[in-house]
Amino acid sequence: MKFKTYITKDSKLKEAIAVLGWSNNEDIYSSSEDQQVYKWSSTNREMVQVAKLPDGFIPTDLHWLTGKGSGIGTPGANAPGGSKGGESLLIAGADGRFVILNKSARIERNVAAHAGPIVTARWSPDGAGLLTAGEDGIIKIWSRSGMLRSTVVQNEGQIRCARWSPSASAIVYCQGPFVAIKPLAANSKLTKWRAHEGMVLCLSWSNNTGMIGTGGEDCRYKIWDTLGTNVYTSVADDFAITSLDFCPDGELLAIGGFNMLKLCHYTGWSHSIVRFNQQATGSLFNIAWSADSTQIATSTSTGSLLFGHIIERELRNRNLKAITTGRKTVQLQDIVARTTDTLDFSERIIKWELGYGHLVVATVHQVHIFNENYINTPIIIDGRSDIRIIMLGKKHFILVDNNSIWIYTYTGRLHLNPRFAGSQAQIPHLNGRCISLGMDSLAVRDHSDQTVIHVFDLLPGATRQEEPYTIHSKSPVVEVAVCRFGNPDDQYLVYIDANQDLYITSVHSGPEYVMHKIGTQVTTMMWSSDTNILVGLHDLSYSVWYCPGEACADPTLIALTTFTYDTSEFGKNITLENFEGANITFRSSGAIFTVSVKTYCVILHKLFAENQWERALKLCRLVQNHLLWATLAAMASKRNQLDISEEAFSASLQIDKVNYLNYIKSLPASGPEHMAENSIMNGRIQEAEIILMHNKRIPEAIRFCLRMHRWGKALEVALKHETDVELVLEERRKYLQALEREENDPQFLAVDERSDDQMDRIMWLSALWMLLIAVCVQCAATHKHSHTHTVNKERTEDGAFAPRDAHHMEDGEHFSEFDHEAILGSVKEAEEFDNLSPEESKKRLAVLVTKMDQNADGYVDRHELKAWILRSFKSLAEEEASERFEDVDLNNDESVTWDEYLQETYGMDSEDEEGVRLPFEEPRNEEERKLIQDDKEMFEAADSNANGKLDATEFVHFISPEEFPQMLPIILRQTLRDKDTNKDGRIDFQEFVGDNAKDHDKEWLVVEMDKFKEDFDKDNDGYLNGNEILSWVVPSNDEVASDEVDHLFAASDDDHDDRLSHQEIIEKYDIFVGSEATDYGDHLQNIHHFDDEL
């Protein structure tokens, strides 16, 4: 990589160029002692005068504040090259003044700022203000309109140069041989160090990497971090370093001296050097990069202007090698096929990337997509300009310009334009370290709150395309990366925080992400392109995590599957260039080093992705390596391959885990205890607790919490259900006694202080409660009843399952009970009445609101309310199934046989006084025969272990099949059997309306035809196929929840800020959870439990 330079020869200027700066990617503005402002074109290198400065004003610095215009002197014109031009031009003078010019070349502000010459004048990165530094030793900060805000530094000697930090939160400046960083926060400490032996002449602060570059009279340039630690020191040149500047994307550094121009990597080592021996330029001043980081301009002491653009940038990917040979030319080589293609473009190349068999090139106005197999027929995307970032993935690629993020497929189709709150203002601050494209996900770090990562789902039809989940880190995030390989369930995200700690989480575990720390002192990391293997770089070593995702929950497995290697042989300032397949590429001082990860692990990952467990097991048996066995153990445990996990753990000498697996295998298969223990094995503690609680395994849940030492949760569950309280207290006493500690938990202290009389009263109330339950059960058992079909299988008249909001409107008015059920998640709780006063109602609702407010920001937004409602819908389905299960389980053996279901659902009610059901003999009519046939088919499909009976979990699948993806094929088959009269495997309009058409008029048919075409027939072929049929017969809870959110917001959002404050919800308590008479059920029966938790 090097500069191709051009020096203006026949300049009309009488004076040497004193200052210059880019207004856009094509135009440079300059000024000199003749007090004129000139505009230069980088295309033809011609200049034109555009403005005149005040008399006696000798410029010393110039800086653009870029905006939507195109520069001074050309108002209303479009910026050349599609780039944004300058809005305001700041010029400092030798008499202590600075002026601000608008795009019409008129001076808007003329401010006397310093007693002596101003050496630096710079707009802040966010454009909110500007700084000036003068030879009087003072640095001042001004508003955008030229009003003085503060004096940052004063009376410390002559200042040579000053620059803003990337976040505009600090200023770096040089005085003599010293460099200092002054934070703008109050009571912050100044960081100062001796940088050079002589005077520091120039400095620059990189926007993306945070590195600081300095050049001095000692003929050296140096790179520093923000703590003043020296990262790189160059060898001494023949002459002083007079100018340097980092490019906007932070990857390159341009350095100028006497007859010398050098292009360097941001860590300091040199790409190339140009010596102007034949055409002397003298010393180079004011090096400035264009916004696209491809061109520079610099003034010379001889009075000419030097232009330069980058050529010979080289990228390699597998069998492909690409190199730029000119401003508009790329040469592509296939080293396997031994072919070379020269690709010429009509416009200047500003950004390009190579990978996954594709070359993507962005020019000024277009994006070209080349496939390695079809080089001569590229796909062209028009209208995309100012491209700053190109990132390639296996299925998609990203384009980032100054306005938005664009995700395209390699066929040129726009797949997604992701947006999040405040994204429009943050896009210009994005760089390659804070955005990552994975197999099916996109992660973007928030710039305004750098502890937040937004995760978008790229799968077609995913809800997170428009409403991303957010990951919250405890510390600011420095770098983020999503894995580039694997199945949708095996996608992981890693990030490095400001403490250089490495964390990992599953992409699809949102919205409540569980973070696992797997590394420390990590400076950068990268996923393999072909496997879920991760490499991370430390200061003097690098680590390879061979199974970071599956093993992250177990520190022992992470240690077994992580290897660390020394990098002292590579040298210093190592950067991670690429991780392609099994090969990792490092670069140090320009030299490339390639190392390989363990090949057998790469093969194992691919077998895991294809579910080829037998071949994976054979591979491990063949190699007999502890790393392989530990990797297989982690993978098999996640996929519930217990036999393989047992052998793998045994081979890797994890005897404790082998014993635990044997215990899990001894439990009833597919039972709640089995599933809970398997979740514990994989580190999903919260999931295990939820499984036990939802399956009413209260004693087991309490013992589980005791095993995990979750004492507070164990006591809460025991008190709530009034069972095993003494067990919890006794285990807690044993625990504290073993540690020789006194009790200090307020929850346990409060329980211990209860008197014996109070405990006796609790036990008496418990006995009374159990007696009442027994009476209710007896009454229910003797009650005469008749069932025709399960509740959840109710159909609408067109054949679809009735959606959850089927009774949302009654008699044309909103049915408030639906709101109550959507919030409480229980029909029983919504029907309980206790004549609560408004004050008590509001008090209880206040506790419930804190549960809805997931991020605890004092507001419930639409996403949080929708997540709560969806959770309530799930609870409703489970409650319905639980009630039905108790009715159908005639022999109370915690399972339902087909005969029990048939008897209870279709058996005849007897006429005797005891209400005993008569045995079912045969269907009474054809309709009942069909219902029984459908139920039998659904029953067998729900019976996952094929034991002829359904446990509580399987019964939920049977009673609510529309809630479970694995049951949808049965629904589809039954729908076709019922509706597809011509047996062609699809539904036409006549079959869609069926016999209902006979009972309605023509207007009804028109409405139904519109519904058929617009709502369901997505491919417009006149038929409903597969997923189209399912979208008809299976209602979407997601859409119902969205409608309910809209209704609740319309009724409660009084200030119309599109979010509900806690006060707004409490004031509308009758809308959310009912009137004064509505009890809040188990959610709020024990209000003190929530108080303790909060």
TrEMBL record:
Describe its function.
Probable molecular chaperone assisting protein biosynthesis and transport in the endoplasmic reticulum. Required for the proper biosynthesis and transport of pulmonary surfactant-associated protein A/SP-A, pulmonary surfactant-associated protein D/SP-D and the lipid transporter ABCA3. By regulating both the proper expression and the degradation through the endoplasmic reticulum-associated protein degradation pathway of these proteins plays a crucial role in pulmonary surfactant homeostasis. Has an anti-fibrotic activity by negatively regulating the secretion of type I and type III collagens.
The source's superkingdom equals: Eukaryota
Cite the repeat ranges for WD: 111-143, 193-225
Q: Which SUPFAM superfamilies match?
A: EF-hand, WD40 repeat-like
One annotated Gene Ontology cellular component of this protein:
intraciliary transport particle B
What name goes with this protein?
Reticulocalbin-3
Matching entries from InterPro entries are given as: Beta-prop_IFT80_2nd (IPR056456), EF-hand-dom_pair (IPR011992), EF_Hand_1_Ca_BS (IPR018247), EF_hand_dom (IPR002048), TPR_IFT80_172_dom (IPR056157), WD40/YVTN_repeat-like_dom_sf (IPR015943), WD40_repeat_dom_sf (IPR036322), WD40_rpt (IPR001680)
Matching PANTHER family: OUTER SEGMENT 5
Q: Name one GO molecular function term.
A: calcium ion binding
- Which UniProt keywords are present, listed alphabetically? Calcium, Cell projection, Chaperone, Cilium, Endoplasmic reticulum, Glycoprotein, Metal-binding, Repeat, Signal, WD repeat
Assembly mode = Interacts with PCSK6 (immature form including the propeptide); probably involved in the maturation and the secretion of PCSK6.
Cited Gene3D superfamilies: 1.25.40.470, EF-hand (1.10.238.10), YVTN repeat-like/Quinoprotein amine dehydrogenase (2.130.10.10)
The EF-hand domain, residue ranges:
840-875, 930-965, 967-1002, 1014-1039
Subcellular location as annotated: Cell projection, Cilium; Endoplasmic reticulum lumen
CDD domains, per database record = EFh_CREC_RCN2_like
Its chief place of residence is other
Statement: the UniProt record of this protein carries the keyword Chaperone: yes
One Gene Ontology term of the biological-process aspect is: protein transport
Keyword Signal annotated: yes
* Species of provenance: Anopheles dirus
